[in-house]
TrEMBL record:
SUPFAM superfamilies: Clavaminate synthase-like (SSF51197). Residues 9-259 form the TauD/TfdA-like domain. Belongs to the TfdA dioxygenase family. The keyword Glycoprotein does not apply. InterPro entries: AtsK-like, TauD-like_sf, TauD/TfdA-like. It comes from the Bacteria. Signal peptide: none annotated. It comes from Pseudomonas typographi. Pfam families: TauD. This is Taurine dioxygenase. Keywords: Dioxygenase, Iron, Metal-binding, Oxidoreductase. One of its GO terms (molecular function) is dioxygenase activity.
Amino acid sequence: MSYQRIRVVPTTPHIGAEIYDIDLTAPLTAPVVMELKQALAEFQVIFFRDQPINFGQHLALAVQFGDVHHHVGPATESKPVPEFPGVRVLHFDQHSKKVAGEDWHSDQTCAALPPMGSILHITQTAPNGGGATLFGSMYAAYEALSPLMKTYLEGLTATHDGRRVFGPDAPVNSHPIVVRHPQTGRPLIFVNKAMTSHIDGLPRDESEAILGFLYAHCQKPEFHVRFQWRDNSIAFWDNRCTQHKAIWDYYPNVRLGYRIQIKGDKAPAMA
């Protein structure tokens, strides 16, 4: 695809691109937004450097892509900003017992309508270089399955249980295991270790075996990009076709960031 107003530098063959020649502290023109949407669709997660945005500018970027998604169920690792309830604080330090997102996951797949995407702005990173985030392409993971496994998975659904992560008041919903992206039309794997509890209608041992295989398959590094944060970096990922994992290797140092999620417009649909 051609980009005339931003510079797009792919980071791996399957997923990820860094975006240059853009200032997210200033209002974005419609043609620039169009190219950002194109880049997100093409690369699944896009990265920005040296963007000291405030909460208003963070929200201004998000709403170009849809309405703000508000967190479903309780959460102990992130809290809303009082003046900007759509923005959640992710602050971890020497007092933290755990951090958000240490298991491979897609955000909020327990919701009936999971978020379309997430925009994370990290303002303070650890001085030891820790705290990277891994992102995986579920397009690439699906494409690497054998034809027989693809056939086996057709028509199956799995339960995503938010209580596993967020506690007893979180939602529980079923989604297809293989879904078709509503924008690109590409098929992808839509189960994740953090929230998927079982495959519907299968005996427990069969469900666990298939899910265990899929989790291990999706965690293959060939499908991943590793993003090393610096202060005022931003990652914007398409939650519908990616998974991610936070690396907590910076204890007892501080890492501080703010995340906005964007509402999905269609429930996950079978491929």
